[in-house]
Amino acid sequence: MLSKPVVSIVGRPNVGKSSLFNRIIGKRIAVVDDFAGVTRDRNYYSAQWSGVPFLIVDTGGLIPNVHEAMPEAIHDQVNIAIKESDVVLFMVDAGTGPTDLDLLVAKQLRRISERVILVVNKAESSSVIFDLDSFRSLGIGTPHPISALHGKGVADLLDLVLEIISREPTEPVEEAEPDLKLTIIGRPNAGKSSLVNKLLGQNRMIVDDKPGTTRDAIDSELEYNGRRVTLIDTAGLRKRARVKQDMEYYSNLRALSSIERCDVCVLMVDVNGEIGVQDLRILKRVIEMHKGVLLCWNKWDLKEKDHRTFDQLVEETRREFMELRWVPMLSISALTGQRVNTVIERAFKIKERMGFRVPSSEFENQVFSWIRAHPHPAIPENPVRFLGARQIGAPYPLFRFFVTNPDEISPGYIRFLSNKIYEIYDFEGCPLTLEFRPIKKKYFEVHQFGGTPDGGVPEEEM
Questions:
Q1: Is the overall model pTM greater than 0.90, yes or no?
Q2: Does residue 87 sit in helix, strand or coil?
Q3: Which of 79, 138, 185, 405 is the most buried (most CB within 10 A)?
Q4: Per-residue b/e over 377-404, b at no fewer than 16 CB within 10 Å?
Q5: CATH placement of domain 360-461
Q6: Residue of 192 and 214 predicted with greater confidence
Q7: 3-class SS at 8?
Q8: CATH 3.30.300.20 residue ranges in the chain?
């Protein structure tokens, strides 16, 4: 696949980089907040202008020569983004004028990239034009005033971006869906970014011991055995009571959105802790969105163990949490790389099984054999009788049962049917969904057990 041109937005903290990013793509993807330093990882997203596709990159605030751990990591991330870029948008704040930090950033940008556009943001006021010349002291070239918040001047800026891009002849970009979209989810500090970094073989995510380091959902791509995989690392999902700041609230929403657009979710759990209520809530969201799921016990290298430790852990977990009975589990170390490739292999298997289709006659015969061996509990006034069943076309395992009095089916019997389907058809890790629909009375009176004479439900009932 040929890469698109890359446009990066850089600058000191809180000059409006994420606001411009969101304005260009037309969605609220990057977290925007008045607190300096909100965007800390590079955030990539596809965009286009005048029919020309490109990748727009939002970065953490560029803080040169500050050696506190997190600013230094942000500084390195931005340097990587600049080296990848065809165009760099250097943003400054019209309200403050050029600052000493802007001068330091400009010096660094002049040293790294020649294709830099100086963007003066927050230029809503018409009086700003009289102060633009002061930004020429940065030595980056002509300042271009915009208002990312209101969209003023953004179109002209994008025209200039395309003009620079067009200087280098580019081949058409082949657009294709990845073979697997994998979202890495879990509570804060479970090791999500470390897993992504190990799979990619580079420091794509900022990794820090402090919980909550990754604030946005970030996409990365890799090729695994000739197949394209999109990895989505998310901010750690927190309990609502703990989401006190606006930026954490939006990051939680972003993580939930990332679950919605993936094929399979990897739920990361620290093996030195335990599965908590929030992990189960995350799992519930994944199942509700009909996504595959794989549970990874991370930091396995730090666990005291013998040859039976993992089997005992799986057995005890499934006995304590019924929700995890059919969720496959792996023990990994994102730090050392132990079994991290197995994560992708297992995720591919889950996606493949999600597309598996059971022949209608075979499934219906299986259902009737289960019912004969284990009938539904008797309800004299509103008997529950199964008249037909089959799998329905969907991107996940969806089975429809035709019954009398579907509202009377007991939860225990639904679990019984689910367990049988998981057991017989190997849907481990897949979001199994069962539907129960009533059938017209005339068919029930004639075919109390087997549906139509050929053993099925009439087409008009499907």
A1: no
A2: strand
A3: 185
A4: eeeeeeebbbbbbbbeeeebbebbbbbb
A5: 3.30.300.20
A6: 192
A7: strand
A8: 360-461
